Task: structure prediction
Amino acid sequence: MIKFKGVSQIEGKDNRLIESCLRILLSKNFQLNASFESPVEGARVINEFIASREIEQKEKDQMALSLIDEAKQALLPLDEFSWFKDDERACYFVWASIYLNSYYSAPNHPATATQLQSPTYNPYYYDPSSPTATAPSPTPQYALSYSQLGLKNNLSNSMERFNEVVKYFDRVRQLKEWKLGLITHLKGIWGHIFSSRKPFPWLEKDNDEQCRWAWEYMRKTDSYSSSKPMTYRFTPTSTAEIYLAIYAVYDTWNVAPDSKRLFSIDFNKAWQQKKLRDGRQGKKACSLVLHKDIKLKLDELAKTRKVTLSQLVEQLIEKEHLLKDS
Result:
């Protein structure tokens, strides 16, 4: 580590670390400019602040070292996020989960309000023997939500979503055990989703007609009811983003498995009915009574040509019509 006049210097290489250092200083009521254009500028702000302190050089050095150590301890390693970084559907699921939901604050587990089992020092510990102690509230408190942390709502690709997820875990003011608990919770839910049968097997990511129809179908069924998934907080634009949003809305829909299964059945039926209606445009029903032998011959011809009976009859009629005009 670089030193200047005997004081360790914060290096402007890691934007996450710089932001973490600034958050710690601000949480201790130090007054300094927390906005910066680059990690180098952020590091300069921190180093200048430490240098300006009216304390011994040795104490300044200790302050810098302690700050770096505390800042690192507050951040989860990027490896904790690797399981969804390159999986677009999983990444959208994680982002949508923290975007839509509120989580219990430490010392509770973020999703269940049960006590976290941490072997490390717990700043929320309540000692009734202390004359200044205040008993914790019997009602679990909530951690700061996604919207309270200055994070973006309208994202246009998976990398942006991944970056905002990392920022959420960096900025939320919770114990490291709490953060790991939430990651484990989301990973467990995703594991179940990943191992389940794909709910919309016909939906293709690059099929604009399918994706836009499916999104409009979900929007029309969005009635603020737990019986149907809600889409009103999502604004996808491109075909690929609409495809991912459809699955994100479904994946984060917090209802019983049977409700999801029934919705997917109705959803898939609606698409098949649309295809059937589209296929019948410009056509008229025609009922014919044929001799049994003729019907068998038609079936055999249709099988040989790999067409439906309707298509076969149309082909035969067109052929005869051309012969008549020739």
The mean pLDDT is 86. DSSP finds twelve helices and two strands in the chain.
